[in-house]
Amino acid sequence: MRTAVNHRFNFAIVSRLSGQLLIVLAAILASLLALSLWADDGAAMAFAFSAAVVAVVGSLLRFGFGRHAATELRGRESFWMTSVVWLLAMLCGSLPYMFYGAEGFTNALFESVSGFTTTGSSVIARPEQLPPSLQLWRCATQWLGGLGLVLLIVAINPRLASGSLQLYDAEFSGTQQRKLHPHIAVSVSRMWRIYAAVTVAMVVALRLGGESLFQSVCLAMSTVSTGGFLTSSSGLAGANASTMTIVIVFMFLSGVNVAMIYNFVTFKWRRFWHNEELLVYTMLFVVATALCTTAFVADGNTLEDSARFSVFHVASTVSTCGFFIARPAHWSFLVSVVTFLLMFIGASSGSTGGGLKIRRLLTLVKYMRNYVTRMIHPNVVFSIKIDHETVPAEYVNKIFAFAFLYISFVIGGGFVLTLCGSNIPEALSMAAANMANLGPSPLMDAAGSMPVYSVLPLPAKLTLMVLMLAGRLEIFALLAIFSPAYNIFRR
Amino acid sequence: MNIIIAGDGEVGFYLAKSLTELDNNITVVDPHSELLKQLESETDLLTIAGDSTSPRVLQDAGTAGCDLFLAVLHDEPINLVTAILAKKLGAKRTVARITNAELLSPKHRDTFRDLGVDEMVCPERIAAKEITNLLNNTMATEFFDFSGGLLTMYLIRLEADSPVISRSVRELTQTYADLQVRIVAILRNGETIIPHSDTVFQQGDLAYIIGRANQLDIIKQVAGKHDVSIRNVMIAGGGRIGRHAATAIEGKVRTTLIEQDRQRCVELSSVLDKTLIINGDATNIELLKEEGLQRTDAFIAVTDSSETNVLTCLHAKRLGVQRTIALVENTGFITISQDIGIDTIINKKLITASYIARFIVKGTAVSSKWLSGTNAEVIEFSVGRWSPATRRPIGELEMPNGSTIGGIIRGRETMLPSKDLQLRAKDKVVVFTLPSVMDKAARIFS
Fold this sequence. Notes:
The structure holds two protein chains of two kinds. By secondary structure, chain A is mostly helical. In chain A, 64% of the residues lie in helices and 2% in strands. Chain B is an alpha/beta fold. Chain B has four domains: 2-121, 3-Layer(aba) Sandwich (Rossmann fold), CATH 3.40.50.720; 127-131 and 234-351, Rossmann fold, CATH 3.40.50.720; 148-223, Regulator of K+ conductance, C-terminal domain (Alpha-Beta Plaits, 2-Layer Sandwich); 353-445, Alpha-Beta Plaits (2-Layer Sandwich). Chain B contains 15 helices and 22 strands. Chain B has helices spanning 10-21, 33-42, 55-60, 76-88, 106-115, 123-136, 169-175, 216-223, 240-249, 262-271, 285-290, 306-318, 334-339, 348-357, 438-445, and strands at 2-6, 25-30, 46-49, 68-71, 94-97, 119-121, 142-146, 151-157, 181-188, 191-193, 206-211, 232-236, 254-259, 276-279, 298-301, 323-327, 344-346, 365-370, 377-382, 403-410, 413-415, 428-433. Chain B has a six-stranded parallel beta sheet, sandwiched between helices. A six-stranded parallel beta sheet of chain B has the order 14-13-12-15-16-17, with helices on both faces.
């Protein structure tokens, strides 16, 4: 990236664009303030303070430092932008929790990071005791973070021509996707529209199924963004059958590439049916469900219990939603193993889910297979193809680097968590679950109740926050800012 | 017939020479005046040096009113532009040589017809098709379908254990009463013999046999052939032919392709899904052995070098490979290559010429095949309503010396010629003919 080092760092543009995002957040906080006043739930002051602080900081950045910003954005700024925007948003997101007085700074930040990264790990033991407006904010952070905050900026800045692609790549699991439209801003706004449409569809479905509007909106935002926050500590235990079905369907859908949903609704069937990743994703879902069901039945549960839990559990894990329901009476060890593997695999590229992503794994598996062939035929030449398109060698290298870093982060995080007092399986599964933005690790707690992170010591919480962010920003955007080439003080 | 050929490459050169021999007026347009000089000194035709995409050059060549315009340069886009220009300048029929087989789909064909390209020919694709046909039909050296497979012509080598060696054609028909075939020609030591009932077969004869597809088993028996089942195929050379051939057979048989150029290998690997692509030199026999040449059932050598192709095929034969097919561009090599035991020779020029020849034989030819190893040709004629052939039975037709009727297709029925069979209009007649009498033969049916 020569462009990254050949010019002076453009502080103004970073400031301007982050300011813009903060103003959007302030507007959302202000509308929640209105809601809070109307519902008189006691969180009005918290939202008023938060909105004021965010609006002031945002205006300063946008109209103060960022007044004369050039519209050009280059590699170095793109990566900084990504990290700066996420950090700022997370700080702002923690304000309502703090001002409300429910949590201290670390816990509030943890909740905010978990929300924006769509992880869904929570330090709040009894969310049902929070005022509704704050609960809504909690779910809304996931929804905003679902498609990515930088994509939000790209969507509201159609003129941000150069650099948009790097932003898009930095955030949207750059798995060599074909854009939906020649203009990046149009592609991005299409993605947002699909995302919003799916969310609205889910809200309507839940309403028709008999849920309250508030519950429908919260659940839809948590599901479609693959977040996982719930409005009650008892999880979805009390939900009726139609809600369960709707949640399962939409969890599965949120793990699908947004572009595929676009192809589906615009009748581009050929692209839809010939998508290898979608096929593997579906097969993974079916096979894992069958395996888990069999394992549960073998361990003495009824078929109905086993099947119901397995479908829900697998959909929740592959899409990295991280919802949980009451477990069958006898837990099966095999299910723990399957779950752990699914956590690493994660959802489809271009979806709101996390993990290594199926497309990347598919590439790696194909590479490995070819590698074995090479042992027998030393002179063989091959290309790795996904959907009949060749994956360039440099890209394969990038995937290897990514997979290595990903696993290093999980092991490193697991190590720190062990030092903080967790046992090894628990630490590893917690690290993997948060890295994949899955949230409540299904293996953490044998009893099957919602895992609560508030009991963890500070270093453990910090570690988990880093993991969540690294998982959401797909590591490179986060690491880039530590590399000398991206040093902002270098000319 | 006034024919203009744009392009003096291998195909153009060969077409120009053979079409001149058939008594056509040929004009060759090519930018390379040196090559043209050489061509003009060897052949009786007109050459014009210049760029075929220039309307002025085309007008100079007499494009307005020419009967057939052939654009056979190396470059596909130039051929297409040339053909379009020629059509707009008044050529009656245009043919362009292409390399991208995608254009041959009916949809794109229509698009190009609208633009002015009447026919498109992709020699590499035809060659690849020939290769795959041969793999499906392992006993024949060469074969060619008429009227969509109703009649087939096989070129078959008579093996040592064939029961007909040292026996005559008459004896053959007496012994095998249910053998419904016609032997139209025999190739012996590079000589073409039109057999009559007293001709005696010898070991190693290459016999051109025309018959129905259901005659295959009995033909096999007569020729002393054994079935070869093809499971592993090795292709040497990843040029266009190699690529087309691999595309056609991969997935059905295990395919290994060897190509010397690394970059080309990478390109191939992105097109071919199931072929094992090896980067290496096909002349390196050790490499071929390492990649399992001994276990290969068919070896196809289609590198740029005819010599390499012939030599590697010989080597493969020696290691026990059942079928060997070599691309031999040098027409002088063809007979000798067959003599030394290579099963089949593929020649791009002959293939292209075969294909194009059907446009030249005065309008009645449906399809035609120029035979390698001999300059003879097999043409499928459609019998014209007022032609001499409809007035007399076959025995009384004055077929010129050097031509013979191989079979008749009437509707969905096929017949072998007999003395008192009366041809009707719209019958299809398969005729084997030497080039010198081709026009005379054509006149009988038109």
